[in-house]
Amino acid sequence: MVALDKVLEQLSTVIDPDLKKDIVSMGMIKDLEMNGGDLKFTLELTTPACPFNVEIEDDVRRVIGEIDEIENLDMNVTAKVMEGRSLDEDTGMQTVKNIIGVASGKGGVGKSTVSLNLALALAQSGAKVGLLDADIYGPSIPLMLGMKDGYMEVEDNKLQPATSNGIRVVSFGFFAEQSHQAAIYRGPIISGILKQFLVDTNWSDLDYLIVDLPPGTGDIPLTLAQTIPITGILVVTTPQDVASNVAVKAIGMFEKLNVPIIGVVENMSSFICPDCSSIHHVFGEGGAKNIAEQFNLPFLGEIPLNSGIMSGSDRGRPVMITSPDSAGAVAFRSSAKNIAAQCSILAARLREEQDGAAGNADQP
């Protein structure tokens, strides 16, 4: 019978392409058992939405197959999302592993549509996802989800999120629709509402909370950055120079606040002709990629310009639900995987920092 040490040595040759570490040192091999020629263990991936999950699983099967003594492999593949923020420093939201703010420098770039469909894509991968519509003045998520008549209850002094298509949703739009009045509040009140939505909500256990921020660099983005530890900011822009130039200002603000930037997504990237499949760059080309290169940030995806994506949002029928095989849905799914991978990278970095700090504290 082969020794378990030999099995672990062989498995340690498998490297996670995102984390650049072997799966054994990352603790991804669980419950290892050997019985004669039968090997059994659990491969616990860092997120169900990792773009390299299949590749890692195939590599594991390959290296185990190189051990002659092993006749049968019983491998259970699961995923456990890593904490991408310091939960010890957050007394109000310790059940939320990752908080991702979705920001843009200006309005009109389709940020809410991107936020919603990314949340749906992550949920469809098997992750537990929440969506906070933080645009108090212009909440749009209820309309995009077909939840104009939705509402949130209060139990034990906690808001209970509405649910739709597997995600937990909080939005001021639920209250605005009921009152049919516009929100007319000054900055401090708006900031107070956001804090309540964050810490006074029963989010339950979440792998990812997507926060759809209003455009610009005003009170809401500042409140999010200063109220709780967050995993990072996803910047959404379009290829247009004017959008890209303003997005740079948003990146600058969050960098000054020492908030990590997860990466950049380009919306309305190009139009794919439905008749001839030719690609047309209606709003220009390369804006988001140039930003990513300028700030040394990950470029996480391109969402095509598609009337179905926008009309679906207007009718409360998101493209991830109604057209999961469309080019738009495929692009959202790819971007969601890249975002999940970046969250895992940030989580691994945070774990190293915490382990290093603990080690230093133990030194005499």
Number of strands: 17
Global mean pLDDT = 87
CATH superfamily heading of the largest domain: P-loop containing nucleotide triphosphate hydrolases
Q: Categorize the overall geometry.
A: globular
How is the CATH topology of the largest domain named? Answer: Rossmann fold
Gap between N and C termini: 44 Å
User: Which radius of gyration do the C-alpha atoms yield?
Assistant: 22 Å
Q: Biggest sheet, in brief? A: 8 strands, mixed
Instruction: Assess the beta-strand content as a share of residues.
Output: 15-25%
For the record, the count of structural domains works out to 2
Number of helices: 12
Q: State the helical fraction.
A: 25-40%
**Strand arrangement across the biggest beta sheet:** 10-11-7-12-6-13-14-17
Brief overview:
This protein is an alpha/beta fold and 364 residues long.
Secondary structure elements and their pairing?
Blueprint: H1 4-11, E1 15-16, E2 21-22, E3 29-35, E4 38-45, H2 53-65, E5 72-79, E6 99-103, H3 111-124, E7 129-133, H4 141-144, E8 153-155, E9 158-160, E10 162-164, E11 167-171, H5 173-179, H6 187-199, E12 208-212, H7 219-227, E13 232-237, H8 241-256, E14 261-266, E15 271-272, E16 279-280, H9 287-295, E17 299-302, H10 307-314, H11 319-322, H12 327-362
Parallel strand pairs: 4-5, 6-12, 6-13, 7-11, 7-12, 13-14, 14-17
Antiparallel strand pairs: 1-2, 3-4, 8-9, 10-11, 15-16
Helix pairs in contact: 3-12, 6-7
